[in-house]
Write a structure and sequence with these properties.
The protein is α/β, with parallel strands linked by helices. It has helices spanning 19-43, 60-67, 86-89, 95-98, 120-123, 129-149, 163-175, 186-191, 194-207, 221-238; strands spanning 47-54, 76-80, 107-111, 152-160, 213-217.
Amino acid sequence: MSKVKLSSLDPRAPKDLDKQDTKAATEKILVELDELQNLLYAEGKHSVLIVIQGMDGSGKDGVIRNVLGNMNPQGVMVKSYKAPTAEELSHDFLWRIHHHAPAKGMIQVFNRSHYEDILVTRVHKWCDDETARKRMAAINDFERLLQEHNNTHILKFYLHVSPEEQHERLSERLKEPAKMWKYNEKDFDEAKLWDIYMEMYEDCFAHCNKPEWTIVPADQNWYKESIIARALRDLLKGLDMQFPGMKK
């Protein structure tokens, strides 16, 4: 993909896009997704890996709940990646990732992912540029392995939220009882490193781009969810899947 400059990208929906029409269209897509996921599971020939990255408050959990939560939980797995454990740190950085790669017939969602090891680690100087380049090469090889040897189709989404919207959402966690459980005092400290994070993300997009990233405007949840739902629907429809016949 061409060089991405996140500061030049609008984090909101086009002004002429109707919110209610878009939400209605998304609801229809979600019905399609339920049927397509059932077909994916039944056919058992393909798998899907959905990578969701974004700053704190960009709405990763909401996407998983509202776009993927309507499908059969037998065929959708979600893995959220936090700071590595001591055991995980004693292995190579992809060790904890590969274990959760999707089996055929499954949709696997990564809430944060292997990309954290070339993002937050670089922002905090835990990983130098030379190591980061080696990790990028390993990530590209890993994703190629999944695609070429397990028929895995990868969708990578970066939720592009504005710093103003992020601040508002993080502040809500201090006020709204239903969101207080998400509060982490370190989130505001991380937000102060915004420019460095943007630089690291842009470098990630430039060097780990097969498959390419989808930059999703994320200031409005209804628009963000419509983009991701449509991308997954289009991918699954394009697989030309068929229900298997009766077993003899």
